[in-house]
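Postdoc handover notes: sequence design on the structure in folder B. Input C-alpha cells:
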C-alpha cells in the first residue's frame, strides 16, 4: 500500500485538458499549497503538512508528471514548462475554492512556485522556496568542475531518447543516488517512504526527464524575459538553502534579493531534504512567512 499523509483526504482534480493532479488536503483557515521536489512526491511534506493543518488549509499535490498525478506525453517544451505546471497549481487551488493562497516549494516544486508567483502575483500571497535558485540563476552559477554535482541537470537536458533510455535502464540506482547523497540523516526517509519515491520515479522517467529538459530551455527563456523586463516578486518571500554558494562561488541571498525585495533568506545546516530532516524548522519558517 502506498503511504499517505495521515489525516489528509485525497482527491483527483482536473486542472487542464486531460491532466488531473493527485492532491492531499486537510485543515481549515488560510490556504497554503506545498509543492514537492525531486525525486519525491507530495509525501515529503508529511510532517510539515500535519503541523500547518492545525490552523491552515493545506494542499499537497503531486506535480504534473510525478507521483499519482497524470503524466502527459511531452509535446514540445510547453508540456512541462514551469509556466504550465504553475497554471496547474492555480487551477487546482481554484477548483478547491481558493482564489488566493500561499505557496511553498522544494527543489523542482520551488521552481514551479517561483514561476507561479511571477505569472500570478494577484493569486500568490506568500512564497517560500527551499534549497533552490531560480532556473536562470542556477544555470549561470553552474560552471567549472564544481558543476559536476549537477550532472543530472546536464543529462536530462539532452534531446529526447538517450537520457530516458539511460535512466530507465537502472532507475532505482539513478533516483536512489540522490536520496542517498542529498540526505544528511538517512532516518529522515524511512524505508517505506523511500520505496514509494522509487516506485513513483520508476513509473515516471519520461515525464521527469521532460520536466528537467524544460528547465534547460523554455524555463530559462521565461526567467530571462522577466529579468529583462524588471519583473520582481511582489509578495513576502522566504528562502531556506544549504550553503551551496560557498561550494559553487555565488551569493545565494544576493541572487534571490534581485528577484524578491521583501526577502528573508536563511541558511540551513540539514541536508537537501529539509522538510523531512528538519520539519519543525521548516514549519516555523512557513508560519513566520504567513505572519508577514
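Designed sequence:
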Amino acid at each position: 500500500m502506498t503511504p499517505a499523509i495521515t489525516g489528509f483526504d485525497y482527491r483527483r482534480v482536473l486542472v487542464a485538458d486531460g491532466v488531473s493532479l493527485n492532491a492531499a488536503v486537510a485543515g481549515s483557515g488560510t490556504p497554503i499549497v506545498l509543492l514537492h521536489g525531486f525525486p519525491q512526491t507530495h509525501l515529503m511534506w508529511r510532517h510539515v503538512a500535519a503541523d500547518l493543518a492545525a490552523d491552515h488549509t493545506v494542499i499537497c499535490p503531486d506535480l504534473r508528471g510525478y507521483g499519482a498525478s497524470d503524466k502527459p506525453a511531452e509535446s514540445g517544451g510547453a508540456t512541462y514548462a514551469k509556466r504550465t505546471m504553475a497554471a496547474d497549481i492555480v487551477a487546482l487551488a481554484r477548483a478547491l475554492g481558493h482564489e488566493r493562497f500561499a505557496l511553498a516549494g522544494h527543489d523542482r516544486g520551488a521552481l514551479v512556485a517561483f514561476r507561479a508567483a511571477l505569472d500570478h502575483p494577484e493569486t500568490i500571497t506568500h512564497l517560500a522556496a527551499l534549497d533552490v535558485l531560480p532556473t536562470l540563476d542556477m544555470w549561470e552559477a553552474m560552471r567549472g568542475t564544481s558543476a559536476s554535482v549537477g550532472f543530472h541537470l546536464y543529462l536530462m537536458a539532452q534531446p529526447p531518447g538517450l537520457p530516458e533510455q539511460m535512466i530507465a535502464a537502472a532507475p532505482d540506482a539513478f533516483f536512489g543516488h540522490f536520496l542517498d547523497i542529498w540526505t544528511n540523516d538517512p532516518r529522515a526517509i524511512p524505508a517505506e517512504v523511500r520505496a514509494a519515491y522509487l516506485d513513483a520515479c520508476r513509473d515516471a522517467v519520461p515525464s521527469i526527464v521532460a520536466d528537467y529538459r524544460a528547465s534547460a530551455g523554455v524555463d530559462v527563456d521565461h526567467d530571462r524575459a522577466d529579468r529583462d523586463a524588471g519583473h520582481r516578486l511582489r509578495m513576502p518571500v522566504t528562502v531556506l538553502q544549504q550553503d551551496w554558494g560557498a561550494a559553487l562561488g555565488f551569493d545565494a541571498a544576493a541572487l534571490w534579493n534581485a528577484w524578491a525585495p521583501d526577502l528573508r533568506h536563511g541558511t540551513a545546516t540539514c541536508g537537501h531534504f529539509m522538510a523531512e530532516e528538519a520539519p519543525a524548522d521548516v514549519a516555523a519558517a512557513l508560519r513566520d512567512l504567513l505572519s508577514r
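Context for whoever picks this up: The chain has a mean pLDDT of 96. Don't rerun without checking with the PI first.
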